[in-house]
Specification:
Layout lengths: L7 H16 L1 H17 L3 E7 L19 E2 L2 E2 L2 H9 L5 E6 L4 H7 L11 E5 L5 H6 L2 H4 L3 E6 L2 E3 L4 H8 L5 E7 L7 E6 L2 E7 L8 E9 L2 H8 L10 H10 L3 E5 L4 E3 L3 H22 L1
Parallel strand pairs: 1-4, 1-6, 4-5, 8-12
Antiparallel strand pairs: 2-3, 6-11, 7-13, 8-11, 9-10
Helix pairs in contact: 1-2
């Protein structure tokens, strides 16, 4: 493409714009912020669903299938995080799985046509080495783009689109989503100082707050460098809490609090709770559509 000299109209617009920006500096700040926001919102965003592990808390049913393929009401568990990503406009998605039944994901999900996708990517995690280890396998897929990570057994009500847009508006770093729960000792628990998150404690016996860190995370490309510095915990796993605390120490972690219901589905009790929450929500939707 060949470009000619700028037209007189361009010079007129350029000179007047600069005159207004000189006379009204606040206009410059607002324009600059708007441009930055617009540019950030056009950043590429990819999705990662972590669906590995052996599901030992759900034996004996997980001897014959991966827990993320178990039904939550009327659909397989893995459908829910995929749908949340697609709802947020994220269509480039990686499923990280493992165990003896990994091939079942391909048979169920195929190329993602049921979700309006052209394809789904897959990665295989050997053994149970932790959430951060599973996320490590997404580095090549992410290719320096920002990612939304959802644990495959997290079932929740909110549309994550506003949280994703809020994250893209920040220049760098990470974002986590929190939820007030009655059994915070089962989760990583966030400690806040006003609008800032100052630390996360993993499954504390005496939680300092009731704000559980949900399995919904947003990261920039630095996450993979951070994972490489992590050491295995006492249980031999690379912990996602260590990754999040690294971002917190750098002052690069933000948070939002989910408004709707949220639960994991990694035990029989929580699977039942997830099923009932989904059932009630779908019944409510049907009644509202009548």
């Amino acid at each position: 493409m060949v470009f000619g000299l700028p037209s007189p109209v361009f010079f007129f617009f350029y000179l007047n714009l600069n005159l207004y920006l000189y006379l009204f500096p606040s206009l410059y700040l607002n324009l600059n912020l708007s441009l930055n926001l617009s540019l950030n919102l056009y950043l590429s965003m990819k999705g990662v669903v972590l669906a590995g592990g052996l599901g030992t808390r759900m034996l004996p049913v997980t001897r014959i299938t991966n827990k993320h393929l178990l039904p939550v009401y009327d659909e397989p568990m893995i459908y829910y995080p995929i749908r949340k990503l697609v709802q947020a406009g994220i269509t480039d998605i990686l499923i990280v799985t493992g165990g003896n039944n990994a091939g079942d994901f391909l048979r169920l999900l195929r190329n993602g046509k049921d979700f309006g996708l052209d394809r789904i990517h897959y990665a295989y995690q050997e053994g149970e080495r932790g959430i951060a280890d599973a996320l490590r396998l997404a580095e090549q897929f992410a290719a320096k783009d920002r990612i939304v990570v959802i644990l495959g057994d997290n079932i929740f009500e909110d549309d994550i689109t506003p949280y994703v847009n809020s994250y893209l508006a920040q220049p760098e770093g990470a974002k986590i989503l929190l939820k007030a729960v009655a059994d915070a000792h089962r989760f990583g628990v966030a400690e806040l100082d006003g609008d800032h998150i100052i630390g996360i404690e993993e499954k504390p016996a005496q939680p300092r707050t009731n704000l559980a860190v949900t399995g919904i995370y947003m990261y920039d490309a630095k996450v993979f460098d951070i994972i490489k510095t992590c050491k295995p915990s006492a249980r031999g796993e690379l912990e996602i809490t260590d990754v999040n605390n690294a971002y917190i120490r750098q002052g690069l972690m933000t948070f939002d609090i989910l408004k709707g219901w949220w639960t994991d589905a990694g035990t029989f009790e929580s699977l039942f709770r997830a099923t009932m929450l989904v059932r009630n929500s779908k019944i409510k939707e049907i009644k509202e559509d009548r």
